């Protein structure tokens, strides 16, 4: 009988041989994650959407309406690509997706301004794309407001009012706004730092379920346990160590790229970012072990793993905050390691939160590491009983 150390090394070598024998392992652990990583980096590389196509319907056709059009076009988000002549035609273009918004300048725009009658500029934007619609509406609103204040200012100055008094009259209440934690409105900091770990957790979970489930499907579970001298702990740790090293390396690579090359703010503790990445990998591997034990049929296990991983973003509280959810729904967010990982990541990268604030989500991540111990007796039983083997 081999010593515990030798049996553990034997399991490790056995798994490395299994990984080297099939291209699927290379695709699942290296090629596809790196391709997905490159895709998301390229997708969010610009940081913020700019030059989004917008149409203008100028029913006034005066120098003042053209000045307003130019002011709107100078914003970073809007790029006026179409000068419509008919509202119905413009809305059809909006439905076809030729542009994201139609700005309508009314008849008698110039005359009504000089008659002290308030003209209404209409902004019809496609809010099916909420981010795009919100960005365009925000920039168009700011441009029209700035243009309107400029006209008001010039009128007051012509009537002999001082510039200071005119500015106070135009804007009697000033607001001092401070954009905290993401002042650049950079969508790379907001979305890429979310989608990259989401992508990785899918591969982490699926590869863990496959590595264990394939032993039962192929009828090699008994040999696997025998190699570990009957110890399910050595069997699991020896088998999953190569995957853990691969995923932890990829998490570190992801963080280096985000912080070093894309200058994602790192205002907190580096060691907490590293610890968070390490626990993230282990938590999802532990969850994969749990799923593989509860659903021994490989196909079912992979299906459950894919559904569970897909729900991680939904319950992360990033796009729809926990505080606005029903308490029961918000509670389910705790059942996903990603929710706690994301809180630690944002706390330490953008918010520079105290370590005491970060302690709770780190504790939750550690709790996921207990899941394998709950199902280890069942896993060992499944290795010893051929009735569990050969299931799809």
UniProtKB/TrEMBL annotation:
<protein>
    <submittedName>
        <fullName>Inner membrane transport permease YbhS</fullName>
    </submittedName>
</protein>
<dbReference type="GO" id="GO:0005886">
    <property type="term" value="C:plasma membrane"/>
</dbReference>
<feature type="transmembrane region" description="Helical">
    <location>
        <begin position="353"/>
        <end position="375"/>
    </location>
</feature>
<dbReference type="InterPro" id="IPR013525">
    <property type="entry name" value="ABC2_TM"/>
</dbReference>
<dbReference type="Pfam" id="PF12698">
    <property type="entry name" value="ABC2_membrane_3"/>
</dbReference>
<feature type="transmembrane region" description="Helical">
    <location>
        <begin position="24"/>
        <end position="44"/>
    </location>
</feature>
<keyword id="KW-0812">Transmembrane</keyword>
<keyword id="KW-1133">Transmembrane helix</keyword>
<feature type="transmembrane region" description="Helical">
    <location>
        <begin position="307"/>
        <end position="333"/>
    </location>
</feature>
<dbReference type="GO" id="GO:0140359">
    <property type="term" value="F:ABC-type transporter activity"/>
</dbReference>
<feature type="transmembrane region" description="Helical">
    <location>
        <begin position="187"/>
        <end position="212"/>
    </location>
</feature>
<feature type="domain" description="ABC-2 type transporter transmembrane">
    <location>
        <begin position="25"/>
        <end position="374"/>
    </location>
</feature>
<dbReference type="InterPro" id="IPR051449">
    <property type="entry name" value="ABC-2_transporter_component"/>
</dbReference>
<keyword id="KW-1003">Cell membrane</keyword>
<feature type="transmembrane region" description="Helical">
    <location>
        <begin position="271"/>
        <end position="295"/>
    </location>
</feature>
<keyword id="KW-0472">Membrane</keyword>
<feature type="transmembrane region" description="Helical">
    <location>
        <begin position="240"/>
        <end position="259"/>
    </location>
</feature>
């Amino acid at each position: 009988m081999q010593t515990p150390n030798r049996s553990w090394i034997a399991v490790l070598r056995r798994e490395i041989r299994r990984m080297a024998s099939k291209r699927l392992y290379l695709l699942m652990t290296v090629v596809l994650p790196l391709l997905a990583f490159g895709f998301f980096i390229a997708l969010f590389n610009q940081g913020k959407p700019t030059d989004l196509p917008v149409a203008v319907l100028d029913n006034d056709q005066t120098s003042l309406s053209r000045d307003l059009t130019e002011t709107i076009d100078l914003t970073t988000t809007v790029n006026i690509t179409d000068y419509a002549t008919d509202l119905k035609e413009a809305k059809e273009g909006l439905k076809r997706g030729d542009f994201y918004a139609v700005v309508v300048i009314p008849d008698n725009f110039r005359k009504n301004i000089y008659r002290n009658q308030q003209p209404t500029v209409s902004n019809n934007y496609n809010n099916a794309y909420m981010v795009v619609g919100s960005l365009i509406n925000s920039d168009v609103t700011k441009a029209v407001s700035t243009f309107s204040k400029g006209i008001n200012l010039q009128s007051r100055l012509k009537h002999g009012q001082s510039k200071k008094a005119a500015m106070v009259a135009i804007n009697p209440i000033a607001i001092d706004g401070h954009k905290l934690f993401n002042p650049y409105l950079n969508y790379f900091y907001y979305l890429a730092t979310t989608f990259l770990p989401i992508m990785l957790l899918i591969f982490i979970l699926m590869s863990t379920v496959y590595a264990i489930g394939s032993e039962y499907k192929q009828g090699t579970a008994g040999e696997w346990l025998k190699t570990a001298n009957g110890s399910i702990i050595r069997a699991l740790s020896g088998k999953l160590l190569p995957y853990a090293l691969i995923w932890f390396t990829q998490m570190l690579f992801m963080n280096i790229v985000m912080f070093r090359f894309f200058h994602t703010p790192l205002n907190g503790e580096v060691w907490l970012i590293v610890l968070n990445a390490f626990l993230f990998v282990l938590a999802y591997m532990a969850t994969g072990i749990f799923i593989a034990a509860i659903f021994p049929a490989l196909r079912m296990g992979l299906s459950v793993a894919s559904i569970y991983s897909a729900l991680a973003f939904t319950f992360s509280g990033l796009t729809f905050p926990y505080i606005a959810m029903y308490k029961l729904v918000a509670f389910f967010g705790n059942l996903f390691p990603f929710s706690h990982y994301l809180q630690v990541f944002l706390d330490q990268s953008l918010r520079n939160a105290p370590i005491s604030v970060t302690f709770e989500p780190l504790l939750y991540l550690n709790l996921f590491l207990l899941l394998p111990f709950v199902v280890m007796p069942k896993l060992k039983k499944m290795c010893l009983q051929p009735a569990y083997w050969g299931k799809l």
